[in-house]
Design goal:
This protein is an alpha+beta fold. The chain has helices at 2-48, 102-105, 124-129, 172-206, 244-252, 259-262; strands at 53-59, 66-73, 79-87, 91-93, 96-97, 108-111, 116-123, 136-144, 150-158, 208-212, 215-221, 229-233, 236-241, 277-278. A hairpin with a 2-residue loop joins strand 12 (229-233) and strand 13 (236-241).
């Protein structure tokens, strides 16, 4: 009886020890997992309020053969004092290196969230001809957030992904831009023709003539100069005037600047525009 009791006590001790060990292991696992989740949450929270500057190359939307480099802030806050470095320095054109370009040479003072700097780097044809399609380099970025915290990233820039690519249709944005440009030109052409037609009608309505003993005086609106009228006689232009009535009054008062008329004392002058003939009634002369 004593032996059985001792055996049960021994098993109970083993079981308690095992339970304690499992409990301790669970507590250690829980502590480690909680710490890991806390660090991940802190990183995620920090990423949500940090800038994220990326450097990459993409085919141009204008034409697949063209290669653009883009420097973009995909973060949620502005990036400041962006400095770029290429390692090794990339010769994008004969004798011209990427380190000489403004973003790499002078840096970028500020990129807002979603901000982007895009520039033409070269063409696939030129890179192939110069043997640069196999070349690659690393773009090193250093920048700060608004509080002065520093960030650094490194991106491998390679052109190999462009090999064999082709496009069967144009970028819709380019098609829309071309259609808009065609529409703009059509509207400009229509507008120009409409203005010409208005000028023609205005010319007909506002052109006046007076047959005098020494020639035919005429008053016509000046093309392209709204509110200005030209006075003339036969084929000779005289002074410009601000209204039809002002021009007619100059003839009436013999202040046309045409001495053969202004110095004549033996002719009767038209008192007002009712003595003049509109071009539409020219046949009644």
């Amino acid at each position: 009886m004593d032996s059985s009791l001792q055996q049960l006590q021994a098993w109970a001790t083993v079981a308690a020890t095992a339970v304690a060990a499992l409990t301790l292991a669970a507590l250690v696992w829980y502590t480690i997992e909680t710490h890991r989740l806390r660090i991940a949450a802190e990183r995620q929270s920090k990423a949500a309020i940090s800038p994220d500057v990326s450097v990459y190359v993409v085919p141009s939307r204008m034409w697949l053969n063209f290669i653009n480099m883009e420097i973009a802030n995909f973060g949620f806050t502005p990036a400041h004092n962006i400095r770029l470095h290429a390692n090794p320095d990339f010769e994008y054109r004969k004798g011209e290196f990427i380190s000489q370009l403004g973003p790499f040479k002078n840096g970028i003072n500020h990129l807002p969230p979603g901000g982007k700097v895009v520039f033409f780097l070269g063409s696939v044809m030129d890179f192939k001809a110069a043997g640069r399609m196999e070349s690659s380099f690393r773009a090193l970025t250093n920048y700060q957030d608004r509080h002065g915290a520093t960030f650094s990233h490194e991106y491998e820039i390679s052109f190999k992904f462009l090999e064999g690519l082709s496009s069967i249709e144009r970028d819709p944005a380019i098609t829309i831009a071309d259609d808009f440009e065609s529409l703009r030109k059509a509207v400009e052409t229509w507008s120009s023709e409409a203005i010409k037609e208005i000028d023609r009608n205005r010319w007909k309505q506002d052109s006046y003539f007076y047959r005098s003993p020494i020639g035919v005086f005429w008053i016509r609106p000046m093309t392209g100069r709204v509110g200005r009228y030209q006075l003339g006689i036969d084929s000779l232009p005289l002074h410009e005037h601000y209204s039809l009535y002002e021009a007619a009054e100059a003839v009436h008062q013999k202040k046309t600047g045409y001495s053969l008329w202004d110095n004549r004392q033996d002719v009767e002058t038209p008192a007002d525009l009712t003595k003049w003939t509109v071009e539409g009634n020219q046949a009644t002369w």
